[in-house]
Every structure is written in structure tokens, then in C-alpha cells.
Specification:
2 domains, 16 helices, Trna Endonuclease, Chain: A, domain 1, globular, alpha+beta
């Protein structure tokens, strides 16, 4: 069959189409593997709790001891709370067994190669989405959010709506927080409410969500390799890191894109230093945008978390530096969370770089990288 000759525009279009399709397929494949891994971990734990030969000697410390042993073997994201989540994931979504492949079955012990019997503490709802649909349509991050819902009917409601609207994880959290399920139950026009809810919903990207902490830890990718939001941000962070170290104010570099877990929410601190003169941590956040109070609130949260979780006995409270950029100017704000003593504040201001110096530096470097 004769076809028209390809033009340059059609060449570009074809390559882009192939790229986007296969990128989406890669994302789905990684997510399915991650979801099945976490389900299998939960399955193993539950089987051991019920039938393990030496389970009695571990008792209530099983998950803590298991987490420590797995970390020693080099595995990531296996804290006791995560293992507990995987076990709950298995108990909540036993229908995922339906999607297990022959190759995957070979990874499981023979006694597990049968359809699990219903478990009393995890009643199965009458309306149940097939396991294959769950793992192909929802990321594990979505599923981790859904298992926190105790009511099976309510959980299924959000599963259906999330799949139907291709919601992002942020949209799923927003809809749960807005009591969409409860409002639907009270609404006299449920179809109209559903239409309104879906019309403004934020949809998930079809490509691999490499910024998802579950994904990049599963792949063994370091957060610093994937968290940079733009080439401009990466370039500025590189220069800023050198700038602070060269200023002679006692900065000692500790981490870049430091991941912290606050409740069930992950945060990433752009740069973390320890100041040997002030004897405290200094957290630096760079936002390639105009200043917002949300930015400052986020930094204050990080500073407060460091104060509670990372301060040693002889340390002074941590301090945060927020850097916001625009095309023609820069803004620097200091977060002094918990520093009520005026003398203490003045000591920090004496030893830390002046706002004017950092602002001048940022403006210069923005021009250098071509954004001025």
C-alpha cells in the first residue's frame, strides 16, 4: 500500500508520539512491579505471623527487627511503619492475587500459591474492583492513601472516582479532604455533583512519576538525581552551594535534596549545612518563583522538624534561608522558628551571610545562566 512521503513535521510528530507512548508504558510497568512487590512483602509478613516456625521469639518486635535486618541488606523504605503499611495493603486488596503472573508466582512459597481465604479483620466489600484494574490504573501512592480509609464502601467509591477521573495523588487527597463521599451521600443530584467534582480535577501525568519517593527508592535512584525542578534551579543550587562554602562563615556541607518524612508527607530540603561556629543546622530552600507565604511556611516546617528530630544536645536551634527569584530581582527571607531570644537572633544574623550579599549573588548568577 502506497503512503505519502514523510515530511519533517511528520517526522517530529511520529518520534514524539512513540516517545510519549513508550514513556507511559515504562511508567506503568514500574508502578505495577512496585505495587506487586509491596503486596508480596505484606503477604510474606502475614504468612509468617500466622505460620512462621520461629515467630514466637520476635513477638511484638517482629516488624522492627525485620526492618533492621532488611536495612542491613541494603533495602530502602522498609521502616517498621512501611512494613505495617504493606501488610495492611495486602489485607485490604487481596484481589490483587488475580493479577499475579506465573513468573511472579515463582517468587512466592508453595503454600501461598492458592487464592487466600477471606480474613476477618479485612472484610471484602460487595463491590470490588478487579486486582488487575487496580494495579494498572492506580499508583501505589494512590493505593497507600486509600488503605487509610476503613469503610470499604467509601474506599471503593474513591477508587472508582479516582480511576474514572485519572486523578493525581494530590487530587485524591483533596477530594477526600473535601468530604466528596459524604457530600455525595447527602446530595439529591449525585450525577451533577460528580460532574462538578471531575470537571476541575487535577489529572495524573501518563509518564513515569519519578519524583514519587516510592518509585525512585524502588529503582535505587537518589533523590538528588531526580528532584531538581529545572535546569535553572540545578545551576543556581550548584553555584549557591559553592558560594556559601567559600564565604568563610563556617558552613559545612551535609546534604542536597535531603528527604524528610513528616507524618505521611515527604519533604525535600534543597541544601543542608552544619554551621561550626553557630553549632546548628542551616537549611536552604530555593524557589524559582515569586515569594509566597506558603514557601516560608514550608521552610518553617522543615526548620521545626530539624529542631525536634536532628538537634543534638549541644546544638543551637536550626535556621532556614528561603531564596525566591524573579526575572529582575531576588528575595531572601530567614526562618528563625523558635528563636525567641533577641540575643540569640542577633548572633545568628552576625554569623550568617547578609541578605544583601545573597541577593546580589542570586541576581548575578541568574543573569549568568541566561534568565536575566
Amino acid at each position: 500500500m502506497h503512503s505519502e512521503k514523510m515530511t519533517f513535521d511528520s517526522l517530529v510528530s511520529s518520534i514524539r508520539q512513540v516517545h510519549e507512548y513508550l514513556a507511559a508504558q515504562a511508567g506503568k510497568a514500574v508502578n505495577i512491579s512496585l505495587t506487586l512487590r509491596n503486596w508480596a512483602i505484606g503477604c510474606y509478613i502475614r504468612e509468617y505471623e500466622q505460620n512462621g516456625a520461629d515467630r514466637a521469639q520476635y513477638g511484638e518486635n517482629l516488624l522492627e527487627d525485620l526492618a533492621a535486618s532488611l536495612r542491613n541488606k541494603g533495602m530502602k523504605r522498609v521502616a517498621a511503619r512501611e512494613l505495617r503499611r504493606y501488610r495492611q495493603f495486602y489485607l485490604t486488596y487481596q484481589q490483587i492475587w488475580q493479577s499475579v503472573t506465573t513468573e511472579f508466582c515463582n517468587l512466592l512459597p508453595p503454600e501461598l500459591l492458592q487464592l487466600p481465604a477471606p480474613i476477618r479483620e479485612s472484610p471484602t466489600p460487595i463491590l470490588q474492583i478487579p486486582g488487575k484494574t487496580l494495579i494498572t490504573k492506580l499508583s501505589f501512592t494512590h493505593l497507600a492513601e486509600l488503605i487509610a480509609i476503613d469503610n470499604p464502601l467509601k474506599r471503593t467509591f474513591y477508587e472508582v472516582e479516582c480511576i474514572r477521573g485519572n486523578w493525581s495523588i494530590r487530587e485524591l487527597k483533596r477530594q477526600i479532604g473535601s468530604l466528596y463521599y459524604e457530600r455525595s451521600g447527602l446530595s439529591e443530584n449525585k450525577d451533577k455533583l460528580a460532574e462538578l467534582a471531575q470537571s476541575g480535577a487535577e489529572q495524573a501525568e501518563p509518564k513515569l512519576a519519578i519524583r514519587d519517593p516510592y518509585i525512585f527508592e524502588f529503582l535505587g535512584v537518589k533523590s538528588s538525581e531526580v528532584m531538581g525542578e529545572s535546569d535553572l534551579e540545578d545551576a543556581l543550587l550548584d553555584k549557591l552551594q559553592d558560594f556559601l562554602l567559600e564565604m568563610g562563615h563556617g558552613f559545612c556541607f551535609e546534604a542536597r535534596q535531603k528527604r524528610i518524612l513528616i507524618g505521611n508527607t515527604h519533604g525535600f530540603v534543597d541544601l543542608v549545612f552544619y554551621h561550626r561556629i553557630l553549632k546548628c543546622h542551616v537549611l536552604v530552600e530555593l524557589k524559582v518563583e515569586s515569594f509566597t507565604h506558603e514557601n516560608l511556611g514550608q521552610l518553617n516546617t522543615y526548620v521545626s522538624w530539624y529542631r525536634k528530630n536532628m538537634m543534638a544536645d549541644n546544638d543551637n536551634p536550626p535556621v532556614g534561608i528561603l531564596l525566591c527569584t524573579q526575572k529582575d530581582h531576588a528575595l531572601v527571607e530567614y526562618a528563625l522558628a523558635g528563636l525567641d531570644n533577641a540575643l540569640f537572633v542577633s548572633k545568628y544574623q552576625l554569623e550568617l551571610p547578609k541578605k544583601e550579599d545573597i541577593q546580589r549573588f542570586l541576581e548575578e548568577k541568574i543573569r549568568e545562566v541566561g534568565n536575566g
